[in-house]
Amino acid sequence: MTTTTPAVSPMDLDEKLALYRTQLALRFFEQRAYDMFLENLVKGTSHLSLGQEAIAAGVAAAMKPTDWTFATYRGHAHTLARGVPMTPVLAELLGRSNGLMAGKGGSMHLTSVEHGVMGSYAIIGAHLPIACGAAWSAQFRGTDQVAVCFFGDGSTNIGAFHEALNFAAIWKLPVVFVCENNLWMEYTRTTEVTAVENPAADRASAYGLESIMVDGNDADAVYEVAAAAIARARAGEGPSMIEAKTYRHGGHSRADPGKYRPDSEVAEWLAKDPIPRYHTRLLELGATEDQLVEIERDVVREVDLATEEAKAGGVPGEDLLMKDVWADGGSSWRN
Amino acid sequence: MTTTTPAVSPMDLDEKLALYRTQLALRFFEQRAYDMFLENLVKGTSHLSLGQEAIAAGVAAAMKPTDWTFATYRGHAHTLARGVPMTPVLAELLGRSNGLMAGKGGSMHLTSVEHGVMGSYAIIGAHLPIACGAAWSAQFRGTDQVAVCFFGDGSTNIGAFHEALNFAAIWKLPVVFVCENNLWMEYTRTTEVTAVENPAADRASAYGLESIMVDGNDADAVYEVAAAAIARARAGEGPSMIEAKTYRHGGHSRADPGKYRPDSEVAEWLAKDPIPRYHTRLLELGATEDQLVEIERDVVREVDLATEEAKAGGVPGEDLLMKDVWADGGSSWRN
Amino acid sequence: MAQLTFREAIARGIAQEMRRDESVVFLGEDIGAAGGVFKGTVGLLEEFGGVRVRDTPISEQAILGAAMGAAMTGLKPIAEIMFADFFAVCWDIVVNEIAKSRYMTNGQMTFPLVIRSGNGGGLRFGAQHSQSVENWAMMVPGLKVVVPSTPEDVIGLMAASIRDPDPVIFLEAKALYSTKTDVPDGEIVDTLGTAKVLRSGSNATLVALGAMVPKALKAAEELAGQGIDCTVVDVRSLVPLDTQTLLREISATGRLFTVEENPRLCGWGGELSSIVSEEIFYDLDGPIVRITTPHIPLPAADALEDMAIPSVERIVTTVSKSMNS
Amino acid sequence: MAQLTFREAIARGIAQEMRRDESVVFLGEDIGAAGGVFKGTVGLLEEFGGVRVRDTPISEQAILGAAMGAAMTGLKPIAEIMFADFFAVCWDIVVNEIAKSRYMTNGQMTFPLVIRSGNGGGLRFGAQHSQSVENWAMMVPGLKVVVPSTPEDVIGLMAASIRDPDPVIFLEAKALYSTKTDVPDGEIVDTLGTAKVLRSGSNATLVALGAMVPKALKAAEELAGQGIDCTVVDVRSLVPLDTQTLLREISATGRLFTVEENPRLCGWGGELSSIVSEEIFYDLDGPIVRITTPHIPLPAADALEDMAIPSVERIVTTVSKSMNS
Ligand SMILES: Cc1ncc(C[n+]2csc(CCOP(=O)(O)OP(=O)(O)O)c2C)c(N)n1
Ligand SMILES: Cc1ncc(C[n+]2csc(CCOP(=O)(O)OP(=O)(O)O)c2C)c(N)n1
Ligand SMILES: [Mg+2]
Ligand SMILES: [Mg+2]
Fold it and tell me: What pLDDT is attached to residue A9?
């Protein structure tokens, strides 16, 4: 396990408080989304990142507003962490016309170009090469933008992973790949179907990359490796691949109780929950209980408000159905 | 560069003479095929292995008749090396009804199930997972068959390569992957678009495999690493990946003069031509000039005969056109 | 007789054939211990063990490549592609390798394999997990394409597909997984390439597939109330296509309406329409009308998805409008 | 005016647009120094340099993923997929990602990109390098599909495709690469979604695409000799489909014959047939007949390939037989 020395200055307490707030926001938002699923308000499927918040939050903290995020179907956290407001995200899960994509994308495809969230992709592996394309465009146009691409441990065995990593390396693209290794695919343990122990890090050398592993339940540690990798990318030094070890507290998707996992494993990881851990650290660093309670209250208020606003959204109609297949705004395939 | 100690006994002189004969047969056959292309008798495309014969010949010598070969569009050599007679192969290139597949496959798809040649595949990468499937079947049925899968250096950057290697490793399949690194894709140098120097060997560790490199212009060396890898596969010890360095004397396909390659590089590799080299070695080992000349004459006779027989083949007719889309022998899509 | 859901019928069909034939093996993602993401394969690992029922990595090309290589060397693999949309990541193995290799080798190889997959919409999964891809497969010479619409058909057509020596794409309408009907006990084996006439009428013929079949039946009932008497045919198998039954039933009424879940362009209904207007043109009494999902990606929101996929109401309105014009 | 081959027209069309718009970039395998395996891109690297014209590894998913990511962030990429058969290895990026993302994001993203590819048979390349895949693309909502049949159309439609804000699949018939015609000097820009009436007749309308267009024209000449006077329409663009022109021309003669290089099932001709028999049924005077490659993989041998792909002779025989029956 190699870790690189970050070329970045560490966060000050205010920044860390903000990072705490982000993690809490992701947590509370998804807990609410889960409750609303139980009330049958969230339709279709959804995939929660409960337990994995430190990664989305830590990486986002290291990004500039002009940088790009490429997320997966498990993308609520990555979307919110970039500053996308809660209301349209929640409304999208409810299938309302005030949703982030007016209900047309759903939970698995959250996108907010305005915030640099360049899509959430639900076919394993596809967005890795797509992130390369955005990075190529930044390189070509000479901007300093960096593309950050999140994916899971199980996604390292699909062909597109391999093509994208090689491609990014040879073109020295400003892209940072972040593997969130939560040990499980859907219901299968990734090590059971993967030839190496660390599915991303142990393969970095196949692309001439350094092997970078980080504790994905420590937002500061994530921030540091991400900031270093992003700085390298911005400086024209090419791609990095980070493997962040973590765990999802719940099942794979909304309907999955996750019972295939040993109780002891779940317990072990619940004990490593990134949020209480960060809470403790902040107190050690001199934050006050009051400060933290206030943040918590503030987040709850935000989630409550989003809930109300999302629920108030209308049902999308036929105008939306037939809109925006094409750039002319319409859907006609004929002249 | 790691080479493994072969668990196999070295070849005696007779076996080496046979290996020489195979290399010569591949060489003369393809030279004839090229002549016939110039005469406009070979239609469509074809891809010659001139200069690479030591690999096909050396690996085939290490295989049992019941083992399986999976080849590429550059598969004349691999097909003939398994004992498929020249006439049907040449007739296939001519598009005649006495062709190996009655003209329906062509140069890029040589197949002779009877000889364990389980197809030649013209879409880069596809046959790697397919070879895994044959190996799985051998494992499942408890036979000792091994699947050997050839591919080029440029083919290591496609997704299917990655999926197949991981799959073979986790299921411990009896499959041997042989990368013929002839330095070039079609007209692009592989190292220019590949993140590592040795496109197969440097990636072996990503699949928990040993890195094996061999001089692909030395049939004995190829034989030895192949025999060792095949023995491991047969013993249930799982897959191997061999990278054999070599060079194609001609262009990528029949119409390509290969002018993009520096003269010095071509000259360097012509000097390493596996056939004169093996010729010298045999003399050193006590073979006589007469023996070698006789082998050469014999091969020429075989090629001449195949030429006559292939040319004598008929033009395939509509019965063949509409045959064998389905297992019932027909092509009807309707009842 | 037992009540069986569509999803339970999958496992029963596979189990029936795995019991019968040792060379039938099954591979895919999360099909073993988890019993499949749609719970269509529950109990198979337990009964047949981890050697015959094998979980794979997320490597669809490897899954289908393995199935193909195994099929050409004597096994009869069943491979699962979890959602039919994912065919796109392994399409080469399907269309360029599996479909063509028998022909290219002049019959030297045979590919007795089944690729089963959850197909189509209705579950609000959005554009990448809801599309209906039957026509992707129908378009490719060398593939058989089977789409059952009832639990009993699932078993019988699954058995027929597994026993068939050719590669079969077996598409399971996700919208039907929870439907439940009585299914006879004992072995069920059906025949590929046979359409089923589910209802006989004299005014128009509705031809439907998969999840559209129950909707077409319901629509026919409503149309009967309006005095429009419809034949309903369940295609069941796109390749081989039972043109005998289809042309006979269409000739008989003189009017054809197709009900297709797929987006419009190049759907099976277009193919059927072209066969009809080539072969029984003079039997037609009026336009051939296709009722399809519009030519758009499927939206995720429940309200939008319901508007997109043909509904009973849309079928009724379209047919009655066209019959009365 | 200059004589130009189809393959030269490719490079001229691309160069015309790269000169005009700095954001047009071009990537693919062997497109740079080698000038493309079909020599369709000769001179582009020299003129535009290695930053805008870039050779890639054999990684089709990476090629199209890169094109997509670049398009969504402001570039206008042209990507080459060397042979259209290879779409199968990167089909997910095309159908699930590029085609759907604008819709799924409710219009937040735009994908001004062109994927060009050598399509179809005639060169004896065998089943994995010869298929005609226009219908694979036509079937997918969100893709435009363009198939030129002359050097001039190559330039004009290439320009229109590059300027179009939507993703365009641009299919170049390999069989036409060597054809040569006069082409006007100066900028040529055509319009997507416009079919061309190449010949006006009164008895029947032949509708053809790509490499089938010159064959349909030749056949029409021969048929004229037999007293059958045919209209010939070059579709040119499958999506958008110029149904105005097509329906008008088919109505006018009352008879439709499609000439399709693709294997039969679910071809564009089936779609067109279904549109015709839905919308102008009462204008038809007889069966709609489709002339296609049989529903088989393409064989390699010259004799077999010539039998498989529609020939002038087969077009003539089919039309005259049907018109005289
Ligand atoms: C190509 C493809 N195959 C299969 C799936 C179904 N699928 C969705 S998520 C998932 C597991 C992914 O595991 P991992 O990459 O570890 O991500 P995680 O869900 O743990 O975040 C699978 C198999 C898919 N979406 N795409
Ligand atoms: C998926 C796919 N992409 C591109 C091609 C076109 N192509 C055929 S051979 C070749 C070069 C292959 O290079 P390498 O793997 O080194 O094999 P070699 O030809 O040198 O034996 C390419 C790009 C193809 N057949 N399939
Ligand atoms: Mg995971
Ligand atoms: Mg090579």
Answer: 80
